[in-house]
Design a protein that fits this description.
With about 375 residues, this protein is α/β, with parallel strands linked by helices. Helices cover about 30% and strands about 30% of the residues. The chain has 3 domains: about 130 residues, NIF3 (NGG1p interacting factor 3)-like (Udp-n-acetylmuramoylalanyl-d-glutamate--2,6- Diaminopimelate Ligase, Chain: A, domain 1, 3-Layer(aba) Sandwich); about 100 residues, NIF3 (NGG1p interacting factor 3)-like (Udp-n-acetylmuramoylalanyl-d-glutamate--2,6- Diaminopimelate Ligase, Chain: A, domain 1, 3-Layer(aba) Sandwich); about 110 residues, Alpha-Beta Plaits (2-Layer Sandwich), CATH 3.30.70.
Length: about 375
């Protein structure tokens, strides 16, 4: 098992929930501390308050990965007799680093919203609100016929040519490549100063932005020519489309009352508030962890019968009632499902990577509200 530092832990985490998935306003990433130090225990929590920091100290965690960012606004001063100041002082004193994964973890496949949708047993689901797309390039490369297969395989291995559920997609046609090696050249085919005509294959593949560097490196390594000819063309399409929330359906229709009951049990909350008639039948469900009032119209447009989200305010609830969209509000704290989900996923990935690090589920109760 490999001893790791914070960078390696975060690299593993961001392979799943990359920062680029976060909304622009969202201050995700490292909030306090440094990542260069060794880490063998990570505490996963929904929030960071002083009790969570105490738990990290007690359980010997060097890093806290939390869903809610500790700082939303730049601080003007750090007074250690304020709750926020005490958190900062304690983390620094005990060399505990704090990292936040907020909307990037909401968006990530398998992240907060999928964890919620899993609990609600939603099938056929997709993002409720598109929020991220990756630039897509067309790579066109010309290779001598005998090298075409090697080049094609190298491109596919580096991640080029994936279209939906199909991989190693490419297009080819054959033509004639012409060149004259100069006196400085060291040609694979032909000789210096003599015009050459070679039967070449034109290979076209799609390359997503994030794989571009790796694919070009693989191309240069696999191509036999000293100076391979290739074009990288930015396309109008995007790929890796991700988004906030999820829309899906229940395997069987049920009444709003039954669905609300399922939500309450599955999300392990003491109560839910509902909008709509308890006896109406629902099947298409939108879910968005945290405060989702902003996305009620997206839920309606997506054809949801019922929308599960927290922090529903009175006037938005009225608007939902008027447009015939039922709501189940399990509270913001329902996002606590991320604790178990993130720890399980990260422990599994650590095992795969051979990393000597354990992700602990925070047991600190950070729900602010008490239901009586
Ligand atoms: Zn939240």
């Amino acid at each position: 098992m490999k001893r790791v530092n914070g960078h390696e832990v975060i690299e593993q985490f961001e392979a799943w929930a990359p920062k680029r998935y976060a909304e622009d306003w969202d201050p995700v990433g490292l909030h306090i501390g440094e990542l260069g130090r060794p880490v063998d225990r990570v505490l996963v929590s929904l929030d960071v308050d002083e009790r969570v920091v105490d738990e990290a100290i007690e359980r010997g965690a060097q890093l806290i990965i939390a869903h809610h960012p500790l700082f939303f606004r730049p601080l003007k001063r750090i007074w250690t007799d304020t709750p926020e100041g005490r958190i900062i002082a304690k983390c620094i004193e005990h060399r505990i680093s704090v990292y936040a994964a907020h909307t990037n973890l909401d968006v990530a496949p398998g992240g907060v919203n999928d964890l919620l949708a899993d609990r609600l047993q939603l099938v056929d689901r997709k993002p409720l609100q598109s929020s991220y797309g990756e630039a897509l390039y067309k790579l066109v490369v010309f290779a001598p016929v005998e090298a075409a297969e090697t080049v094609r395989e190298a491109l596919a291995k580096a991640g080029a040519g994936t279209i939906g559920a199909y991989e190693a997609c490419s297009y080819e046609m054959t033509g004639t490549g012409r060149f004259t090696p100069t006196e400085e050249a060291n040609p694979h085919i032909g000789s210096r100063g003599t015009p050459e005509a070679v039967e070449e294959v034109r290979i076209e593949v799609l390359v997503p932005e994030l794989k571009k560097a790796r694919v070009l490196k693989a191309l240069l390594r696999a191509h036999p020519y000293e100076e391979p000819a290739f074009d990288v063309i930015l396309l109008d399409q995007q790929t890796d489309e991700q988004g906030l929330g999820r829309i899906g359906r229940l395997e069987e229709p049920m009444t709003l009352r039954q669905f609300a009951q399922r939500t309450k049990e599955q999300l392990d909350v003491p109560a839910v508030r509902i909008v709509g008639s308890p006896e109406e039948v629902v099947q298409r469900v939108a879910v968005l962890g945290g405060s989702g009032s902003k996305y009620v119209h997206a839920a309606k447009r997506a054809g949801a019968d019922v929308y599960v989200t927290g922090d529903m305010d009175f006037h938005t609830a009225q608007a939902c009632e008027a447009m015939g969209l039922a709501v189940v509000d399990p509270g913001h704290h329902a996002e606590k499902v991320m604790i178990e989900g993130v720890a399980a996923r990260m422990n599994e990935d650590a095992r795969t990577n051979g990393y000597d690090v354990t992700f602990l589920e925070s047991t600190t109760h950070t729900e602010t509200f008490t239901f009586i």
